Amino acid sequence: MMGFYDDQVLPRIVDLVLGRPMEKARARVTAGLSGEVLEIGFGSGRNLAYLPAGVTRLLAVEPASVGRTLAASRIAAAPVTVEFIGDDGQALQLPDASVDHVLTTWTLCTIPDTERALREIHRVLRPGGTLHFTEHGRSPRPTVARWQDRITPAWSRIAGGCRLNRRIDDLVEKAGLALESASTFPMRGTAQLGFAYEGIASKPA
Predict the structure, then answer these.
(1) What does the alpha-carbon distance between residue 64 and residue 6 come to, in Å, rounded to a whole number?
(2) pTM higher than 0.85, yes or no?
(3) 11/7 Cα distance (integer angstroms)
(4) CB 121 within 8 Å of CB 99
(5) Among 30, 34, 113, 126, which residue's beta carbon has the most beta carbons within 10 A?
(6) What stretches of the chain adopt beta strand conformation (E)?
(7) C-alpha distances in angstroms, 5 versus 99, 161, 162, 178, 192?
(8) Rounded Cα distance, 92 and 96, in Å
């Protein structure tokens, strides 16, 4: 069960911090989505405005009640049907091979067992389906990575369990997904905290 801070306060902070500055990243990561899409870490619904016309249904996983409240007006204005299907990305309430694509934006850092969540993503994707992700994680620069390791325990306590030092691309591939495209770069203004990972990974047909 989520505490008051994680459920009521942090979602409002995230909605602000990951708002306008992240619009270009949201547009990039949602490009090419179609059909039935599962979004893990729906948050306040900021990705809705960027979904392509080919998306017919969005299944949302979001643990914070305030996130869903903040999303209400965006859901009402969205041309696509949004259905909340659970609050835990580690145990998806969906059948095997039931969605066309999965979307995650700055989510894999906070899920306690990321490997389990990615195995679940692999399970629910249809053969040939893809995971679209933009995340932050471990820097390839040793000095920055050591700094991330040092501050992650404290950062995690104030940022909803967010870990700064996960190798997102390695975790995605370990789950059996094949990276079709991937780019990594320092996050502007936060190079000591976040290193961006963006890409698409597919489930073998």
Answers:
(1) 7
(2) yes
(3) 7
(4) no
(5) 30
(6) 35-40, 55-61, 81-86, 99-105, 125-137, 178-186, 195-202
(7) 32, 12, 14, 37, 25
(8) 10
Residue 114 identity (one-letter amino acid): T
- Domain with residue 42: its CATH number is 3.40.50.150
Residue 127 has phi, psi (to 5 degrees) of -55, 130
The residue segments making up the domain with residue 36 are 4-202
- Cα of 88 vs its chain's centroid, Å: 12
Q: Per-residue pLDDT tens for 97-149?
A: 999 999 999 999 999 999 999 999 999 999 999 999 999 899 988 988 999 99
Give Cα 42 distance to the centre of its chain. 8
Among the listed residues 81, 79, 39, 80, the one whose alpha carbon sits nearest the alpha carbon of residue 62: 39
Please tell me the total count of domains within the chain: 1
Q: How many CB atoms lie within 10 A of CB 47?
A: 28
Q: Which residues contact 138 (CB under 8 A, 6 or more apart)?
A: 145, 148, 164, 165, 166, 167, 168, 195
- Give the pair of three-digit tokens for residue 195: 């290193």
Question: What torsion do the CA atoms of 49, 55, 61, 64 make, to the nearest 10 degrees?
Answer: 20
Cα–Cα dist 138/169, whole Å:
10
Phi and psi angles of residue 170, each rounded to the nearest 5 degrees, phi first: -65, -40
Q: Are 90 and 118 in contact (CB under 8 A)?
A: no
